[in-house]
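tmp note - Polysaccharide biosynthesis protein
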Amino acid sequence: MLLQQVVVRGFVAVKFLAIGRILGPEAIGAVSIALLAVAIAESLSDTGLAQAVVQGHDAPTQNELGAVLATLAMRGLLIGLLLAALAPFMSSQFHLNGAVGLILLAAVLPILRGVASPAYFIVTRQRGFQKLAGVETSAAFTDCAVGLACALSGAGAYSVLIGLVAGELLKTVLTWTTMSPRPPLRLSFSGIGHYVNFSRWIWAGSVVNLLLNQFDKVVVAKLLGPLQLGAYQMSSKLAQMLLADAAIAMSQYLFPTFAEHHRRDVQGARKLFRRYLLLAAAGLALLVIVLRFAAEPLFNLVLGPAWLSAVPLFRIFVINMAIGAIIAVLVSWLRAAGMPKVATHASIIQAIVLCVTVPVAMHLWGVTGIAWAMTVGLGSAAGWMLFRIVREA
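out:
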């Protein structure tokens, strides 16, 4: 999983940094608005079925897999159609200057994700990490290669989305051709009611996380437009690549691993959790110190002088992403231990903190204040999850 994450995030980094250098902040901001629309729609309709299949005591039957596929495919189609219908309105609201095509192209992504085979969740449950890595790496390479080719040929902001669609299409095809068991192709939604109790907390958490993860970007996009959003998004993205992505890879490994250990030996699983948490915290603290000192030369070298205005934001975002990385490990444990509601409660606390701090911070310090308010909110969420985990031990 770690090797997969290095390769996959490496391709993503090459793509976004190269295209960012070629196109500049405004084009990246325009693409970010289109992807923001997809993220909002997917968060509001998150079924939580993927996590429920991985965490459940028994593996799903063929009929249950078919119901999972039908549910996710219908969800993806509805999201795509909704985004396509709202594209003109969103273009006017977020200063896209009539670039409706960006949102229409982004609307293809949830449709492709929805029709991917749910056998992917079975492979995850069985911890078939080598097969997962092959699929994810192939998709990331396709995304990077197609995106860069389009950017160099003059496709502009569309190059990012064309690459994403190509990578997602390949991933969907590979889930059907390389993974088993294949679900039956029929429009049936029955037989997965027992997943609802678990998945409803995943959905609730996704809705709250929508506010937490996208609220700041919506504010910047609406008030300041694509240019400022491009600087904000790139500083966040670069910090994520250097810090949070490793924890995301670890959490993808840890969730099914914690779940397996928890089914067999609760005390042993708790020891394993503490070990990984300490390892992540120590490594992240060191990285934060190094990256804050190296921020300005890093931006000048990788993105060029046009992006130096984003350096102060980057120095804040490395702290945010480090806390977010810790949260990823905590959430993996909470879901594996059957306590997804604790993560949702933490997200609600974070949302309350943001509602209190963001207006004041934005008034006093502008976009930098929003970034610092995010830090306070993330710290509150992590603190609550640690408190509940310690109390449950």
